[in-house]
Write the structure tokens for this entry.
Amino acid sequence: MNLELSEEQTAVRQLAKDFVDREIAPHVVEWDRAEEVDRSLVKKLGEVGFLGLTVDEEYGGSGGDHLAYCLVTEELGRGDSSVRGIVSVSLGLVAKTIAYWGSEEQKRQWLPGLTSGAYVGCFGLTEPGTGSDAGNLSTKAVRDDGGPSRSSGAESGGDYVINGTKMFITNGTWADVVLLFARSTDAPGHKGVSAFLVPTDTPGLSRRTIHGKLGLRGQATAEIVLEDVRVPASAMLAPEGKGFSVAMSALAKGRMSVAAGCVGIAQAALDAAVRYATEREQFGKTIAHHQLVQELISDIAVDVDAARLLTWRVADLIDRGLPFATESSKAKLFASEAAVRAANNALQVFGGYGYIDEYPAGKLLRDARVMTLYEGTSQIQKLVIGRALTGVSAF
């Protein structure tokens, strides 16, 4: 086993570190208070190649392996997890899913824009009443084989008309396309779900920004409402009824991305705690000399290393073409919980100053907390892992 990074991976990591320190770190507090990341950053992410990692150059991607993708995601998480979410969703959940499941026409329509930053994608799965139970969607896509098209007045020729509401959608108000999941057949449970690529300028689609979040405050999180939204049959991604498979395959890789972002949060917590402990003086010496402070810092350091290695294992399995879904759930479960512990321990090192947003510990803790909730809660990850180990079917 060789854990040494290649020259290319080392270069990508350094590129990401420099980008974060230059383009993100100086603005983190401002964006958090304003509840909005500067949207011009998306184009910069595209120009540097971070929105095209692992996507073939033929479609505008920048190539690279999944470990390089993890390294970039980790650095973005270290800088600002709100920015990490832009990449994890637009590239990780949307572009990479189109690259895997899409037709040639769909790839050429969407991938160049998504990988360059000209387009932003969002993942429309969660609903107001449906989070963990992704197979029980209420959003419906009804086939209309004739009649006037709402958008053009022409014969529809097999359009789908979609009605429903999606909630907590990352990139929702910024997105140019929604990878949307809706029930399109009468088949029970997950078997009736299909996936669609829906442009956000389609008549009948409206969006509302969700403000007042505990963490990821700079991220454009939205509610999306679809009222008689008409899309052509060619907008369907993968065969009808395969939407649940599309969603689960996307989330299996997406959990690796979340885990990498959590490593970044934990690393930021470690960096901040060490820096503060070696500067802050109490009882005539820096607090780094106090053994209980050293204990807090050592606990963070161990969590960082363990989470990083679990995440890198997932990337290695994907790059070698081996099964990885269970390992991805393990990495996401451990790394998300570890990020919460790390940020909480860092706040303890900071003491009262950790409670002020001029210092990083509070934001790290707020951003870390949601990681145990989205793309599958910690409890769902335990179910996934337990079922894989025991052979018990979910259905």
Q: What stands out?
A: Confidence is low (pLDDT under 50) at residues 147-156. The first strand starts at residue 121 and ends at 124. The radius of gyration is 21 Å.
